[in-house]
Amino acid sequence: MGTQHLIDTNATIEFLADELPLLGAQWLQNAVDRRLHYMSVINYIELLSYKGAPTEMQVLEDFINTTTVLPLQADIVEQTIAIRRAIKLNCRMRSLQPLLWCMVFL
Asked: How distant, in Å, are the alpha carbons of 11, 59, 78 from that of 17?
């Protein structure tokens, strides 16, 4: 098995809309074809919260069905809340995802 990749929400959207640069699209297509891609539960929520046309939603759902969705563990959620409170981040100003994924590797 090769290197596994965590795919970001924006990368997924641009990939499915055929808006990635050629080399990026080829790289991601290779990862998808080899089933070496993952997404976080946050990406899953963000993608399926989109209110697109039925055909767009089907494309998203088909992509997600080929993807391993990684859950968040309760201790990671609690640590993230504590850190955000300690540094007084404004939830409306910043996404939680980068902070959560940093916590995964601590």
From this structure: 10, 10, 35
